[in-house]
């Protein structure tokens, strides 16, 4: 990047917010995606929507590529600049602008941390349900760009279900306002939904208005062990079939159970196939009724253990196994490849079996846990990036797992995004026409292709 | 440095919201994840040890909040400290570092002698004269800051005046070896006296070996591993020569260091046993909750608690101090927002990196203000120094005291 251009950028965002030293560039060359890295040409930390707009206008003019970044917790390489372009970090736009208790909305700047919004709205008895695993550091802008999910997806949906309004800087620096506080709005294309999950390829969000709901008053937490995987999977399907929608319906497989027990000593038996963590919430009477129904269904499917937490403290204890699952797995080996293959709920048992068989076939250690209620599984491969042979086998294994996911009517990514990590699997999922439409949209909004280039799909057929 | 420790970081970013310097700057280079990446890139030959590089890694407070948050067990704070230790070993220490961290602080006798003029200066009223003339401003800035931090010193270091054996009040339950930290002895002797009184009241005979040396933490800061091993081995042998049920300290920093002696001495049996016998005072008192509760009288005070890094992050002690405060009848305990975030004292950080230390500290002060507490309780001398000074300026009505002082107040109420 030329000196004069960097000077011009610094003129907009200020010299201290313009980083070009090799140390900074090295630190902005990665996100949370294993294996991937590439140094940007410059890192900018703008302080306002106006600054972002000016930066984009300048970059558009010069044809310089820009990759937006929140806190860098992306799991598909989405916040890495692969062509020495500009990385634009939005963290300084971090004000919660309004919590509107009459319209039940919150309006935040793009860099607000998800859990900070949770705290603010919950203090007012309100609820913003999306709770991605990285919520203590992930930004709202990042959540919207990736359409992040979380543990509460089954009952409450994902980020997309809550976005009501957006302010977005487009590729040429123009400001676009979409949606707002109204529940009903059919004026023109639904551009909000188009921008959600665009992974930074269509625009950079500056302001986000989300829907809030009343906070559920009661909650019950249950932990259940199943000697047989099929029975656990059937239980999941039958709970939903019984018209009970738990807030959380989480699953751990045998490998994960062993790792969790070795690490946290929470008293899990090592001879069971599956553990389910179930939480129901809502009106106290409804919660009681749902919990009783769930117990019946679990017993009918031969669970070997069923415990209901007596209070919030015990609930925390029961949830420990699920909470520490990723930690317990990640500690096993230096490199952790965390995936998010997602299948229809009814396919959970065959999917988990297939993952286990594939792990055996390629001689890999893969633990699976995840959101059984919505079919979003996290097969987690524990490996060592220094062992190129094993890494190659891991990629082969995941290739097969994704093929199977698509064959089962599922998707290659439930909540992590396509980025570059899943790019090669996308054509198979969406087909030629899917790609043609996406490329058309990209071309209309970003004709020069400067916004997060190379992510999701290539502009031309390879 | 062991390369595996560096590649264990999966870059998930869970450490970022817990890192005081990241929270202030939003810079990846000022985050634990970034620091691990920097050291890794250096080892991989992608970066060189430039001035900027050292500036970035030295911004770490070594508060180890990142270690508490890391899902994969990476201790970025410790890795950075290890790197700096190795780097300084090659380059040598500055004269000031050498003087303070190697020649002065690790030796209680020298430290006590060196601080004697300060005691005299405070006692004779010279302090008022010097302060009003602004003479402190004539000192180099760092020295000025150090002196500004000093509260009123006790007449004599506690190590000199305390009796080696304090008998148990009433029926004797056991014997506690008391490890008296240097700063506790020199500055916060009243808190350590409260510690001894509490232990004695609960039926423990307290042995405070007079010959004890510094725990070795300054040696680590001074990158003097030989000095550290020497201190560890000396103290292990000394405490081993008494017949003790456990070793207790009321200094978070000492406690964290003593618990690592086994590791410092490469798993030597005696040192491992010594480390296993070390308790923070809150652990001992918490185990005696029932007996203690019977001795406590009402204190109608609004109290909050700041977690010292060396207690919460290095020793994993969080619930015990809070439970002890809540044992006091009539107390109005208010949880401090971001209670386990570093106060910016961090060893000698507040002297080396005053600007960042002040930013971290002012966030702490604002959080204390939010609680409306009249008493801020903590249990580490570094935090006490830092917070006493800051609050005496920003919120003079808030008193900053050690946990044992609060419990003693309640006992004597």
Compact summary:
The complex is a heterodimer of chains A (462) and B (413). Chain A has 462 residues and is α+β, with helices and mostly antiparallel strands. Helices cover 37% and strands 20% of the residues of chain A.
* End-to-end Cα distance of chain A: 28 Å
What global shape of chain A is seen?
globular
Strand order of the largest sheet of chain A: 15-12-14-13-17-18-16
CATH topology of the domain at 96-214 in chain A: Uridine Diphospho-n-acetylenolpyruvylglucosamine Reductase, domain 3
**Beta-strand percent range of chain B:** 5-15%
The helix fraction of chain B, in percent, is 55-70%
What is the helix tally of chain B? Answer: 26
> pLDDT under 50 segments of chain A (min length 5)?
none
Helical amount of chain A:
25-40%
| Structural class based on helices, strands and sheet pairing of chain A | alpha+beta
Count of DSSP-assigned helices of chain A: 15
Can you walk me through this structure?
The complex is a heterodimer of chains A (462) and B (413). Chain A has 462 residues and is α+β, with helices and mostly antiparallel strands. Among the domains of chain A are: 3-89, Uridine Diphospho-n-acetylenolpyruvylglucosamine Reductase, domain 2, CATH 3.30.43.10; 96-214, 2-Layer Sandwich (Uridine Diphospho-n-acetylenolpyruvylglucosamine Reductase, domain 3), CATH 3.30.465; 216-321, Alpha-Beta Plaits (2-Layer Sandwich), CATH 3.30.70. In chain A, 37% of the residues lie in helices and 20% in strands. Chain A has a seven-stranded antiparallel beta sheet with strand order 15-12-14-13-17-18-16, with helices on both faces. Chain A is globular and about 70 Å long. The model of chain A has no long low-confidence stretch (mean pLDDT 95). Chain B folds into four domains: 3-91, Fumarate Reductase Iron-sulfur Protein, Chain B, domain 2 (Orthogonal Bundle); 95-149, no CATH class; 158-284, Rossmann fold; 290-412, Rossmann fold (3-Layer(aba) Sandwich), CATH 3.40.50. With 413 residues, chain B is an alpha/beta fold. In chain B, helix 25 links the parallel strand 8 and strand 9. Chain B has a five-stranded mixed beta sheet with strand order 1-3-2-4-5. Chain B is built from 26 helices and nine strands.
């Amino acid at each position: 990047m030329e000196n004069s251009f960097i000077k011009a950028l610094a003129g907009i965002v200020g010299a201290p917010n313009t980083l070009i030293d090799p140390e900074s560039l090295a630190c902005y060359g990665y996100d949370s995606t294993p294996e991937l890295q590439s140094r940007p040409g410059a890192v900018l930390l703008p302080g306002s929507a106006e600054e972002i707009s000016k930066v984009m206008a300048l970059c558009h003019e010069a044809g310089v590529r820009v990759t937006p970044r929140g806190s860098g917790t992306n799991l598909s390489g989405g916040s890495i600049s692969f062509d020495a372009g500009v990385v634009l970090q939005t963290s300084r736009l971090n004000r919660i602008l309004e919590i509107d208790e009459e319209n039940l909305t919150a309006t935040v700047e793009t860099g607000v941390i998800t859990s900070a919004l949770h705290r603010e709205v919950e203090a007012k008895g309100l609820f913003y349900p999306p709770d991605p695993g990285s919520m203590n550091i992930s930004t709202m802008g990042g959540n919207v760009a990736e359409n992040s999910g979380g543990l509460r997806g089954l009952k409450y949906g994902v980020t997309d279900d809550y976005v009501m309004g957006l302010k977005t800087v487009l590729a040429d620096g123009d400001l676009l306002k979409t949606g707002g506080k109204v529940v009903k709005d059919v004026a023109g294309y639904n551009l909000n939904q188009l921008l959600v999950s665009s992974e930074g390829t269509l625009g950079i969000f500056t302001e986000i208005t989300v829907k809030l709901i009343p906070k559920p008053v009661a909650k019950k937490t249950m932990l259940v062990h199943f000697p047989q995987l099929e029975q656990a999977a059937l239980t999941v399907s039958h709970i939903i079939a019984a018209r009970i929608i738990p807030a959380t319906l989480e699953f751990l497989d045998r490998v994960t159970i062993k790792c969790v027990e070795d690490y946290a000593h929470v008293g899990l038996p090592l001879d069971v196939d599956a553990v389910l963590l179930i939480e129901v919430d809502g009106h106290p009477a409804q919660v009681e009724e749902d919990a009783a129904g769930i117990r019946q269904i679990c017993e009918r499917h031969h669970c070997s253990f069923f415990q209901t937490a007596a209070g919030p403290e015990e609930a925390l204890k029961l949830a420990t196994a699920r909470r520490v699952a990723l930690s317990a797995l990640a500690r096993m080996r230096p490199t952790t490849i965390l995936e998010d293959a997602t299948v229809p709920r009814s396919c959970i048992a065959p999917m988990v079996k297939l993952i286990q068989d594939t792990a055996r076939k390629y001689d890999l250690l893969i633990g699976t846990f995840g959101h059984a209620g919505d079919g979003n599984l996290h097969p987690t491969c524990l490996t060592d990036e220094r062992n190129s042979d094993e890494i190659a086998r891991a990629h082969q294994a995941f290739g097969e797992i994704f093929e199977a996911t698509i064959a089962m009517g599922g998707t290659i990514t439930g909540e992590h995004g396509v980025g570059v990590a899943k790019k090669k699997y996308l054509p198979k999922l969406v087909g030629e026409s899917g790609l043609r439409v996406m490329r058309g949209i990209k071309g209309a909004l970003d004709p020069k292709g400067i916004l997060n280039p190379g992510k999701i799909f290539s502009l031309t057929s390879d | 440095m062991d390369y595996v420790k560096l590649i264990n970081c999966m870059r998930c970013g869970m450490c970022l919201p817990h890192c005081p310097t990241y929270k202030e700057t939003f810079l990846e280079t000022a985050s634990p994840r970034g620091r691990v990446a920097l050291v890794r890139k250096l080892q991989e030959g992608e970066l060189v040890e430039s001035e900027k590089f050292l500036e970035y890694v030295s911004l770490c407070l070594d508060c180890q909040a990142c270690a508490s948050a890391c899902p994969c067990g990476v201790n970025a704070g410790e890795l950075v400290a290890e790197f700096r230790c190795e780097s300084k070993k090659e380059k040598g220490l500055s004269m000031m570092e050498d003087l303070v961290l190697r020649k002065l602080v690790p030796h209680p006798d020298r430290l006590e002698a060196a601080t004697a003029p300060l005691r005299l200066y405070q006692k004779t009223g010279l302090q008022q004269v010097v302060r009003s003339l602004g003479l402190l401003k004539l000192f180099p800035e760092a020295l000025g800051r150090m002196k500004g931090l000093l509260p009123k010193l006790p007449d004599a270091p506690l190590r000199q005046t305390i009796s080696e054996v304090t008998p148990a009040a009433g029926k004797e339950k056991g014997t506690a070896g008391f490890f008296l930290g240097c700063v506790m002895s020199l500055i916060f002797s009243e808190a350590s006296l409260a510690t001894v009184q509490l232990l004695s009241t609960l039926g423990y005979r307290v042995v405070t070996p007079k010959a004890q040396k510094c725990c070795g933490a300054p040696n680590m800061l001074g990158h003097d591993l030989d000095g550290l091993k020497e201190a560890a081995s000396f103290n292990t042998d000394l405490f081993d020569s008494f017949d003790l049920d456990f070793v207790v300290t009321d200094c978070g920093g000492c406690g964290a260091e003593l618990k690592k002696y086994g590791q410092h001495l490469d798993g030597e049996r005696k040192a491992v046993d010594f480390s296993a016998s070390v308790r923070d005072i809150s652990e001992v008192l918490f185990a005696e909750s029932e007996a203690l509760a019977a001795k406590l009288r009402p204190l109608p005070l609004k109290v909050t608690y700041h977690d010292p890094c060396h207690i919460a992050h290095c020793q994993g002690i969080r619930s015990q101090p809070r439970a002890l405060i809540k044992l006091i009848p009539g107390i109005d305990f208010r949880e401090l927002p971001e209670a386990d975030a570093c106060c910016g004292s961090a060893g000698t950080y507040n002297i080396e990196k005053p600007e960042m230390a002040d930013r971290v500290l002012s966030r702490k002060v604002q959080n204390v203000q939010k609680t409306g507490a009249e008493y801020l309780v903590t249990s580490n001398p570094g935090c006490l120094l830092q917070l006493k000074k800051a609050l005496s300026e920003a919120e003079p009505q808030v008193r900053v005291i050690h946990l044992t002082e609060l419990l003693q107040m309640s006992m004597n109420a």
